[in-house]
Amino acid sequence: MYATLTALAAGEIDSYRNLEPKSMLEETKSLVEAPWSKKTTDGLGTRNDGIQKSFDMTPEQLRDDQDPIPAP
Questions:
Q1: CA distance 68 to 60
Q2: DSSP assignment of 21-59, as one string?
């Protein structure tokens, strides 16, 4: 323990500012990086069917209940 504290004070250890048990290093690293690996679509669920259909439609596509406009 004293050797580690001496090395830390001398600047020989630069991996972390605080001393942490080696068993916690991987867990700590994953918790620190978790917000940065999150995607914007995580945990959003699904859209209502009608809203999803409007996203899937192309601009020239008619609704199911809409008749095409007859040509003049």
A1: 11
A2: -GGGHHHHHHHHHGGGG--TTTT-----HHHHHHHH--T
